[in-house]
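FORM 7B: Structural annotation worksheet

SECTION A. Query
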Amino acid sequence: MSSEAVTDVKGVTDNKEKQTVEEVESLLQASSDRVKLCNTILDDLKLLNEALVRRSLQDVSMSTQK
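SECTION B. Predicted structure
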């Protein structure tokens, strides 16, 4: 194989590797965004749960005072 042909094959391989790396980076970024969204939702659910527990405790304490 001539050095020119080897260079062409290497260039194609480098382009495929670069494309693969870019695809993986894109997938990782999308996954990271999804994880951040899930964490935000989880944090909001925890806050909601705490508020509901406080409300339930207030309701119980008021009903026992009557």
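SECTION C. Observations
Helices lie at 3-65. The radius of gyration is 28 Å.

SECTION D. Sign-off
Analyst initials: ____
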